[in-house]
Every structure is written in structure tokens, then in C-alpha cells.
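Homework-ish question, so no full write-ups if that breaks the rules, but can someone show me the predicted structure for this set?
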Amino acid sequence: MKHIDAAHAIDRELKKGSTELLILSLLQHRPRHGYDISRLIETRSEGVLRFNVASFYPLLYRLEQRGLIEGRWVEKPGQRRRRYYRLTAQGRRMLRARRTAWDAFVRAMRRITEAEHA
Amino acid sequence: MPDWSAAVRERLAGLRLDPARESALVEELAQHASDRYEELVTNGANAAEAERAILAELDSPNLVSKLRPVLPRPAFRPSPEPADASGFAGFWLDLRHGVRRLRLEPAFAAVAVLSLALGIGANTAIFQLLDAVCLRSLPVERPQELVSVRVVNVQHGRTGDFSGRFPHLTYALWERLEASPEPFSGIAAWGSERLNLARGGEARWAETLWVSGSYFDLLGVRPLSGRLLTRSDDRPGCASPGAVVSETFWRRELGARPPGPETTLTLNGHPFEVVGVAPRAFTGLDVGRDFDVAIPICANPLVISRPRVSDSASWWLASVGRLKPGWTPARADAYLKTIAPAIFRATLSPRYDAQDARDYLAFGLGTRPVPTGFSSLRTDYQSPLWLLLGISGLVLVIACANLANLMVARATARRREIAIRLALGASRRRLVRQLLAESLVLAVLGAAAGAVLAQTFGRFLLSFLATYSARWFVNLAPDWRLFAFTAGLAALTALLFGLLPAIQAAGTRPNEALKSGGRGVTGGAGGLASRRALVVCQVSLSLVLLVGALLFVRTLRNLLTLDPGFRRTQILAVSVDFWPLRLAEPARVPFKHELLERVRAIPGVEAASTAWVVPSSGDGWNENVSVEGSGAQRQTANFNRVSGGYFRTMGTPLLAGRDFREADRAGSEPVAIVTETFVRKFLNGASPIGRSIRIDGAGRPDRHLRVVGLVKDSKYYDLREDFTPIIFVPDAQDDDFFQATNLLIRSPLRMDSVTASVKNALTRWSPELVLGFQSHERMVREGLIRERLMASLSAFFGFLAALLATIGLYGVVSFMVVKRRNEIGVRMAMGADRGDIVRMVLREAGALFGVGLAIGAVLAVAAAHAAKSLFFGLRPTDPVTLLMAVGALAAVAAAASVLPARRAASLDPVTALRED
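A: Not a homework solution, just the prediction itself:
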């Protein structure tokens, strides 16, 4: 039982960590609102990654609580006001670190899996 | 398109968010939901499908559980004014607000709760005892129907022998009552007695009830085991009646063996079969006393040397009847009035003389409701307990005044907050309610802690009252009355200490309070005036309590130091019952003579004598007597029957004449020794030696006694009484009908070692003797329990009151000094020296103290008058006591004022002025 629990935990951590990386990446160049972010994740992953309200917003608020992103209500002419999120300086540093680690991880995975194929 | 806000809000309610945060969250998530809806519809879903899909997403349990850890907890904020703040919901909000405020000030809350807990705890404990002893109904079937029939129209008192705790009726009267039961669906009689369980040696007492056959049935008691006594057990002349035991006795003495012929006990040497066990809840009709054994009235001749069932001048029974439906006590009284003359005519004792008979025939019968039972504890302690409740109530009021003072100070410190809220449109009523809610929270916490403390206090009080001869058995289990009392106290105290500060705070004028800036901390003039009034009230109440305490302490001291006319210490009292020896009459006097000689021969015994009545034991015997040739009318005098050497043993000086000697025996001229008060009352101070005393024969021929000696006065029944006329007669001239006596033994040794040697010597000599031992000192001391209780508790409460008042005074004087810093600075700048400033502050404190004292003195004298029956050797207006109380209070008050005064005087005028 123990190793299954551990595998679950790693899976959960991986997913959470990767989703955080996705959100931070999507905010790297411009502020976006919550729906926009979740849509982008879904479309760019071609439907592989999907979030609903109950799973997405807690993640978003956690990032905000940790000071990695900040939200602000913005009113644009002819539109409802929306809450836009952008990266903070701390979020930017975190994104860099995460991205490096992720790249290293993916490279390592690939080396192992491709070596087996060869 | 649907509006998703409501759906989202509903799902977020469980998070209890800050309202602002909540609406932002609702807006954002609702927007997400509507964007998703549009998307689904655009992609071809119909409206219902899209809506279902989104609701399913929102319904995920993850939403609330995952949001909860990431959203900040709401910070403390004053509760908002809800739309409807007037109803219960508003009150609930106020209470929550109160709790939160108090959590911010734990030190204040702790002090407040602790002082309230002590005050409420003491009050509750005393009330608990009062409730159990005076107010609670008997634990029997329909107690409200129970009445007791008593003799009424008693003009000159009743004559005869009295025994038991409630000697209302004679056996003859009871027989007649039982035979004419018109107003009653049932009637029963009972009496109380201590009977000896031991078959020889040191006596072991069983609290015994004499009960009529109808007793248990009338009260609706069901047996725990076996059966209870019935009419068939209580037949006149019964030879081997059964006994019912209490559950405690059954377990303690009988090892819970099943009732039956195998299970027996011995009472005064007579064997009884235990036929049943009464349930634990039933402790008899005497509230405060448990019983061990109940035996039928018909068993009286079997265990008592002088049977009372055949003596119509022996008062030893009490009655309890259940009124028939439709009968009120008044109607029963009217009925009894019609049958009383015949009953009294039929039961007239041949022992009565003409005067006694006239009195007896004029008696009537009446009922008294007894739903709360009978109680000697109630008779003795009802008024002291009510008085103590009053005293502890005053202490609670003083404690509340201190708390009110603290609350005023807090309210003043919060003036700015309150001013801002008023300026923002809060209603004053609401503010008062909110501040009161804080007080209520404190009071409820204090009352809860007090209720717990009260259990300990209550048991302590009860153990205080226990004596060698009286184990009190009181049911202290809380009932609705106790709950109501404690809840009432909590509400009352909350009002007492909360209302004034609340009203005052709500009276804040926002404009002024805000303008005064940081200086708001020192508060307005209103705060000071009310705090002064509180201190005056505290000083006056604590003077009342101190005067009361001193009166009780001095009463106890007077009783402990007065000369009772006999030694109090180093005397052992031994009751000796030689009835089991069945001695023939001529053998009794020689037996007692030998008994005394054997005791006197024990090493360490300095002196010994016999006495029928041990002084201050509560026992007594009196007769109507006159002195021949004195012209004075017959009066009542107390009697004691003693051996020669009694006065030497007890240290009572012989003033004239001689002690009893061996020649004073049966057959020689009956002689007597009298006291100084006897001489004053019967002989106007003339010499008594050689005079003849005539004892009223009460139906038999008069007897005459020749006075041979005069002794110093001594106390008879108890220490509180005035000296009474006492006639001592020689033991050797008595017929010893009762075959019992008391030995008084003086020894410089420890009482327990004397007890051991006497027990050893006497049981070796005659193993069948029944002996009881008690130190005379302890017996006298136990006679003063009520005084000791009042002295200890009132001193404790008085001390507490003075302490609280001192703290109050200190607080107000310090507050005043802070408030007048500026003025003090100006005065010092203009040349006032430190002495002037100290005097100014002390003058101010002195004025408060003086007003308090004046009011307190008036109240104290009034209160002392109301309680004057409890004092001894003091007038309620005793000036020394009043001066002592004022002096003590003045000393602590001066100490409490000097400290802030000196602080005021050491102010630097420049700093003080700059602060304006």
C-alpha cells in the first residue's frame, strides 16, 4: 500500500507543480483573467489538460497568496469588469527557476525513455 | 443567460468569509461560469445541458475544501450593524463581539471572571445550603399534602419529660389522633432517639426512629430489599418487632446481608430482626439528619428503662398526616378545634398538679404544613444562613463596584472608538446593549466558575457544622432553584457592573471626544463622578461588613473567655449506663460509690464525681420550687444530682456551708446546695444555709430539701444563657430509677490516654457497662459552632470587603491624580510644595472616605440591630466595635491614598504642563 500512496503523492505534486508552471508561463508576457488562463491551458494542450472552477481557482489564489502573482480588477470600456492577474517580481524569479528545473527534468526523462527505444 | 452569482454565493457560504472578500470571489467565479456557459452553448450544447455541466463543476466538493486553506482568515473587526440588529440575531452578534473583545484583553477578563467566581461561588454555596435545608420539598410522594398536628394555645409552656428532636405529642395524644382521622387520608407518628448497638463496653450509637405502623405507607416509601414496617408490626405490647434499616447502615454495619431471621441487630441490649431496607433517597422527615434504624413505637418498653408509651406526660412523638382531597389546613384546623377538648380531657396525666392540669385542658390542636419536612438544622441555622447570604451578597456588590470601576476606565479608554461609531450613525441603544453584552459574557463565565467553586464551599460549610453528636446529612445536589439563583446572580451582577459604564460610554459626545485627541485616555468628568460614587458605596458597605464581623468575632471571644463557673479544660465526661446489670434498688447507690472509687484510683485522675446533668451539654431538668418562709412565689429552678467532690472536680468555688458527704444518703434528711442566683431570686440575697426548699410534687406529695451549702454561679444549658438558679442534690439520695449516670473526671493527662485507662479499668471490672466518652472541652466548644461559623465567615467576608474597597479607593485616587496632572503642575509652578499637593490629594480621598463612613455607620447600626439576637455581651451600637472598624478601614484607606498622593507630589511641573 505504501508505495502506491507515495506514487499518488508524487503524481499530485507533479501535477500541481506543472500547473503552477503553466499559469506562471501564461502570465509571463501579459496580464490575463482567470477564464482566459484556463481556456489557454485547455486549447494549447489540445484538450489534454482541463480544469474546472473547483480545481482551477484554488490554485490561482494559492499563487496569489504566495505573492507570485497579483490580481487587480480592471474595467475596460464596453466590457464587464474582470480580475486580471500578472506576475510579481517574485513570480518571475520562481518561473525562471521552475522552467530550468522542468527543462532538466524533461531532458532527463527523454534521455532515459529514448535510450530504451533505441 | 442565467445569473450565476446566487449559485456561487450559496456554495461559498460555508467559508464564512469577510463580506468584501466574498463578493469579489462571487463576482469572479460567476463570471467564469458565465464565460464557460457561453462557450458551451456556442459549441452546440443546449441551454439546459450547459447549465447542468456548470452546476456540476460548482458542486464539486473540492471548491470549498480547496479554497478554505488559501483564503485569508477574517481579521478582528467590530461587528457590522446588521439590517435588523434589534432582534435575537443582533443580540447574538453582540455576545460574539463581547467574547472577541474580551479575548483581546485576557488579563482584564481573568481578573473580572475570578472575582465574580469567588463572589458568586460564596453566594451560591450559602444559598445551596439554605435551599437544601429550608426550601426543598421532602423526597416523598406528594409532599405538598403533608401537615403536622401540633399542640396550640400553649400559654405557660408544657410540663413533663421531653425527648427526641421534635417532642410535639405524647403517646396518649397520638393514639387519640390516630383514632379520629377525619381530615386525613392517612396519619403517622415518629420520634427520634440514639440507641446503643454495642452489647457492652463503649457505646456505639444508632440514630433510631420510632415509627408508627402507617409511617412508610403514608409517605409512599418502597423498600430497597425485604419489606417495610406496617400496621401489623406496631401493635401495643409487641414482643419481638422487626427493624428497618437505612441503606447506608445496611451496607456499613450489616455487610448488605439480605434481611431475614438471620440478620439481626441489638438496640440497648434487645435483639431485633432486620425485616427490610429503606431506599437511599429516603432519609426520614428530619431534613439534615440521616437515620440508621427504624423500629415500631410499640418497641419502646423493650429498650427504654422508663417506657414513654404509658406516660401521658412524656412528650416524644411528632405527627405527619396527609390531607384528604378537598381539605385545606384551615378546614382541618377547624375540625381539630372541635375534637381537641375531648382529646385533652381523655389524656390528662395524673402527674400534673392543678395548675398544670388547667393549662393542659386549655390546649388546642392545629396543623402546620410540612412539605419541606422537619429540621433542627433549619431551626438553628436558618437565620444565620440568611444573614451570611446577605453578607456575601454585599461582598458581591462591592466586587461589582470594583468591576464597574474597571469597566468605566475601559469605556473611557475606548471613547474615541465609540465616538467614531456614533459619528458613523450607530444608535446609542445598540452601543449600550453591546457594552452590556460584554458584561453579560463576564458574568456568565464568572457564574459558571462560581457554580463549580460552590460545590467545594458548600461541603466545607457543612463540615464546619458537623459535631460529635450530630452528623448532618444534606442533599446538596443542584436543583432548579439553585440554577435559577445562580443565573439570576449572573444577570444581576452583569447589570450592576455593566449598566453604568455602558450608559456613560454611550453618552459620549463624538465631537468633544474626537477633539480631545490622545487625551481621551484620561476621560471626562462624568467618569470621575460616577467612580467617586462607586467608591463611597464601597466604603460604606465594607464598614457595614467590618462592623458585623467585629461584632461576631467579639461575641465568640466573649463566650470563649467568660467565666462559666466551671473548668472547661482537662475534664473527661463519661456516660455510664448500668441498666444492663439489672441491679436491685438497694444495690444501686453502693454500685455508684464503688464505680467512683475505682475511677479515682486510676493513676493520673486528680478528681472525679458523678453528675446527672453535664453542664453545657444541652441536657437539663427543672422543677417548680419555693423557699419556705421567704414569701416569694413558686418559680422554676434547674436541678442537678451530683456526688460529693463535684465542685472540686469542676473547680466551682464553695462560698458558704459544706459539700455533700457520705452521711447524705437515702433515709437521712434530704439536703441541697444552691447557687448565688438562686439566693438572689428566691431569698433576696439573704443567707440560704439552713433554709428549706419545697419542691412541687406534681400530683405526689411535695418534697423538702434543707440547704447546706452555697456555690458560685455556673452555666447550665449553654454558655449564652444568663446564670439561672440551680439546686444541686446528692446522688446518694436518689432512687436511681434510670440506672445511668455521668462521670466527670479531671486529669492533667491527655484526654485520649485518660479515656483509654478509664475504659480499660471499667470494662475489666464490669464488661456489661455501656460507656460513652467525650472531652468536656469539646462538648462546650461544639455548643459554640454557630458563633464560630458566624465569626469565621463574617471575618473572612469583612476582610475581603475592606480589601476590595481599598483597591477601589486606590484606583479612583490614582485616576484623579492623572486627570488633574495639569492643575497640579500649575499649582506647583505657582509655588505649592510637595506637602501641599499630598494634602490636596489626601483631602480629596478623605472626603470620599468620610462620606462613605457616615453612610456606612448608619447602615451598620441598622444591620446590627436586625441581627442583635446573634450577639453576646455586646450592644448592637457598641461604640468600641464601631471605632475599631472605622480605625481599621481608615488605616488601609490612608495607605491606599498616600501612594498616589506621593506620586502626584513628585510630578515635574514642566512636564505636567507641557502635556496639555
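Now go work out the reasoning yourself. Hint: The CA atoms of residues 143 and 371 of chain B lie 5 Å apart.
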